[in-house]
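Hi all, posting the design record for the shared folder.

TITLE: backbone redesign
STEP: 1 of 1
STRUCTURE INPUT:
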């Protein structure tokens, strides 16, 4: 009986590993990132700057949306949920899911993660499966 449980655990772990992606797998499209750029300009650029470098040195304390700040989010859903629930700072939670995921696509593009053939979907369960990692 213990062997059967062990085998089931191993196969379950392999299935989870197989379903997980990273941002290096091309998880958004170039067109989606293009829409995201326009939405970022309207909703985010005032605080996070055009180049996503943030305004950490000012009273606004808007963090950079590039580099280690993005890597620290661990998975795409973490980034998506934070933006969806807390942004923009002057009207938190006002962005709909499609707007948010398009902005996330633009942020991924600006962090040099490659585009792919399928759009990023605003589905938390799917987004949790996409890990944000540094290139190996």
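Okay, here is what came back for every position:
SEQUENCE:
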């Amino acid at each position: 009986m213990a062997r059967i449980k062990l085998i089931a655990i191993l196969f379950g772990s392999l299935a989870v590993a197989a379903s997980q992606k990273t941002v290096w797998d091309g998880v958004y499209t170039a067109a989606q990132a293009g829409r995201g750029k326009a939405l970022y300009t309207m909703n985010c650029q005032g605080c996070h700057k055009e180049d996503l470098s943030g305004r950490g040195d000012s009273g606004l304390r808007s963090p950079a949306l590039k580099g280690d700040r993005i890597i620290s989010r661990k998975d795409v859903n973490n980034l998506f949920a934070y933006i969806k629930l807390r942004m923009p700072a002057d009207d938190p939670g006002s962005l709909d899911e499609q707007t948010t995921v398009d902005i996330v696509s633009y942020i991924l593009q600006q962090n040099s993660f490659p585009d792919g053939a399928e759009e990023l979907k605003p589905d938390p369960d799917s987004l949790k499966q996409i890990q944000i990692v540094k290139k190996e």
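COMMENT: Residues 22-131 form a domain with the Cytochrome Bc1 Complex; Chain D, domain 2 fold (CATH 1.10.760.10).
Let me know if anyone wants the other runs.
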